[in-house]
Amino acid sequence: MGTGVVIVAAGSGKRMGGERNKLWLPLGGEPILAHTVRLFATHREIDEIVLVVSAEDHSSVLKWLDRERIRVTVTLGGAERQDSVRNGLSALSNECSYVLVHDAARPFVTRKQISAMIKQVQQDQATIMAVPVKDTIKVVGATGIVESTPARESLWAVQTPQAFRMSLLRDAHRTAVETGKMGTDDAMLVEWLGHPVTVMQGSYENIKITTPDDLWLGEEILRKRKGE
């Protein structure tokens, strides 16, 4: 029952405000991408890794991997994140019974959390990591008027990795293509199949580095973990 991971790194990072993919920005003296890839490449329960990158980053990623002597499969992303994940799934071998999908911009998931998710997905077949929201959420219409206020107790902020039985996620992506549906995460595609998705509580430190403020927070998380 091999476990593979698809690391999605094909975004442009426009919200960071730079000209280059944000994943090359330094975090603790190394690119954000380095933290994420090394975490999975050195995890004893991960058997196979596919890194999905943009055409612009392809050459740079290959050179970096060769320099670091990290062995992963690199494939190109698509127009949307869903297309990129589907490309990543196609690049994984059939020896993987389970797959984790992870955003490269989330370098702070822990080894313990990854192991717990692998154990959980073998039981539930579809598992996501999430945390309860701290703020009150408002549903706001196009005119700027509040339409409703969902009960905060039922709202969770979804993170990655998300874990699935490989055959289930491939079926979900295939069905999404056939029906023309586009989801905001992989769990949504599985939900459309009618399959239950369980939630494993994550950590508020498992942030996605998207804006300059996130990068500052990331440095603080690193210092905390190093005991500085």
Description:
This protein is of the alpha/beta class and 228 residues long. It is 37% helix and 25% strand. It has helices at 32-41, 55-68, 81-91, 111-124, 166-179, 186-192, 212-225, and strands at 2-9, 26-27, 30-31, 48-53, 73-76, 96-103, 126-132, 139-140, 146-148, 156-165, 198-201. It has a seven-stranded mixed beta sheet with strand order 5-4-1-6-10-7-11, with helices on both faces. Strand 2 (26-27) and strand 3 (30-31) form a beta hairpin. Helix 5 packs across helix 6 (186-192). The longest helix has 14 residues, at 55-68. It is globular, with a radius of gyration of 18 Å. The protein starts with a strand and ends with a helix.
Strand content: 15-25%
Sheet with most strands: strand arrangement: 5-4-1-6-10-7-11
The helix/strand order is EEEHEHEHEHEEEEHHEH
Alpha-carbon Rg, integer: 18 Å
The largest β sheet comes out as:
7 strands, mixed
Secondary structure tally, helices: 7
Q: What's the overall geometry?
A: globular
Poorly predicted regions are: none
Percent of residues in helices? 25-40%
Question: Based on DSSP secondary structure assignment, what is the total number of beta strands?
Answer: 11
Decide which structural class fits the backbone. Answer: alpha/beta
Mean pLDDT, nearest integer? 95
